[in-house]
């Protein structure tokens, strides 16, 4: 049973650490706005993960059903939101860069930091994570593979959920802390632009894939 738990921890670590839209958003906010903003963004994504996992557990226990069509519609809206986040951030970054002299670029970045509220950071994290409700189906398929770590299904699910949330938060915070290194702060605008482009591509290709399925 302990071996199953270790396998689960390794699988979750690899899944979460792999760069995706959530990681791109946390990196962007950490590089452009600082650690606290990334912290509240991560809280938002964690809260969403907990909601999606709760729905998944309800399905596993047979207490809830969800329409695949409804999931697809919400996913398309989520892709549009992800694209919007990347596009709007990239637009403002490039606009500020063009309008400000090179010597004033750093003060402008500091000004931008003060305009980013913790509530908006939380909502960004919540929005980008809830934008992929098909994660519910992933959890439904994923958790049963490791559900025998204890003799009780509820106890096993509680442990699996706790491990997922803890690893999710710690990994995202590791990315945020890494972005505070001086050598990376020198390239924070470039890192922010790359993260925005990744978000836009995820939104475009995600929507294309979903529309192809209709």
UniProtKB/TrEMBL annotation:
<dbReference type="Pfam" id="PF01810">
    <property type="entry name" value="LysE"/>
</dbReference>
<feature type="transmembrane region" description="Helical">
    <location>
        <begin position="153"/>
        <end position="178"/>
    </location>
</feature>
<keyword id="KW-1133">Transmembrane helix</keyword>
<keyword id="KW-0472">Membrane</keyword>
<dbReference type="GO" id="GO:0005886">
    <property type="term" value="C:plasma membrane"/>
</dbReference>
<feature type="transmembrane region" description="Helical">
    <location>
        <begin position="40"/>
        <end position="62"/>
    </location>
</feature>
<protein>
    <submittedName>
        <fullName>LysE family translocator</fullName>
    </submittedName>
</protein>
<keyword id="KW-0812">Transmembrane</keyword>
<feature type="transmembrane region" description="Helical">
    <location>
        <begin position="69"/>
        <end position="87"/>
    </location>
</feature>
<dbReference type="GO" id="GO:0015171">
    <property type="term" value="F:amino acid transmembrane transporter activity"/>
</dbReference>
<dbReference type="InterPro" id="IPR001123">
    <property type="entry name" value="LeuE-type"/>
</dbReference>
<feature type="transmembrane region" description="Helical">
    <location>
        <begin position="190"/>
        <end position="211"/>
    </location>
</feature>
<keyword id="KW-1003">Cell membrane</keyword>
């Amino acid at each position: 049973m302990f071996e199953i738990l270790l396998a689960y921890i390794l699988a979750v670590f690899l899944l979460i650490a792999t760069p995706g839209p959530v990681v791109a958003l946390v990196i962007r906010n950490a590089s452009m706005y600082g650690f606290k903003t990334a912290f509240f963004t991560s809280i938002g994504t964690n809260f969403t993960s907990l909601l999606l996992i709760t729905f998944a557990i309800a399905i596993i226990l047979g207490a809830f059903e969800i329409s695949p069509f409804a999931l697809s519609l919400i996913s398309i809206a989520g892709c549009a939101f992800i694209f919007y986040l990347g596009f709007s951030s990239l637009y403002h970054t490039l606009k500020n860069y063009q309008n400000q002299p090179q010597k004033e670029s750093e003060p402008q970045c500091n000004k931008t930091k003060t305009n980013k509220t913790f509530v908006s950071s939380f909502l960004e994290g919540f929005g980008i994570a809830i934008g992929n409700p098909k994660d519910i189906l992933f959890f439904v398929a994923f958790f049963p593979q490791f559900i025998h770590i204890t003799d009780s299904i509820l106890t096993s699910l509680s442990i699996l959920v706790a491990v997922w949330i803890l690893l999710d938060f710690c990994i995202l915070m590791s990315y945020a802390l890494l972005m505070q290194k001086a050598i990376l702060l020198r390239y924070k605008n470039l890192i922010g632009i790359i993260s925005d482009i990744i978000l836009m591509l995820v939104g475009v290709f995600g929507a294309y894939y979903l529309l192809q399925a209709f």
